[in-house]
Amino acid sequence: MKTILILIVLWIGTGTTYAQLGAGKAYVSGTMLLTREAINPASAISFAQQRTQLTLAPQLGLFVSNLTSLEVGLNSTIVWKRTQNPNLPLNLQREWGSSFGVSLGMRFYFKNENEKFKFFLRPNVGYSWLYDIDSGLDTNVFSLGLSPNINYFLTNKLALELGFAGIGFDNVGVKTTFGTSREIKFRMGASSFMPSLGVVYFFK
What we know:
Elements: H1 2-12, E1 26-39, E2 49-63, E3 68-83, H2 90-93, E4 94-109, E5 117-132, E6 137-153, E7 158-163, E8 167-176, E9 179-188, E10 196-202
Antiparallel strand pairs: 1-2, 1-10, 2-3, 3-4, 4-5, 5-6, 6-7, 6-8, 7-10, 8-9
């Protein structure tokens, strides 16, 4: 809710045209998302957990029309988990995992009168490798997704970027001693108010 109020204030205060989109223009961007989650014990014999996750995602893109671009990106995630088990020493209560992935995506910007704000949808396809700290197994994920995003232009070249969780499908493969098992999962995050925050620089 706080994020929405900030965006409304910025919208009211805009009066200068800044956005400089157009076919043939390139851009670089990067977003960051930091989340923390407390997990209560599911039963009397389990323990509470705290999970912290940091995701960094740089992208490079090129406009193929005035409002549409193609982009490639990387993403790297680090996850820390602490299990509050008093029977274990501190070094065994803490675990960490990481993932690395690549993605191909597009941006479809909406045409609007206020050029300081630009709303766009971002469909993307990605592939990532990760170590699952919950199962202790190596995992690979093939994903398809669609997410809403906002650019707020500070100058004609530099803009802030907010990215919200959208919808998508994940094809998850888990390597075990018996081979690789796969599972398709649907994710729905359109109601999430925990956006990723970043910046984007547009070249002339």
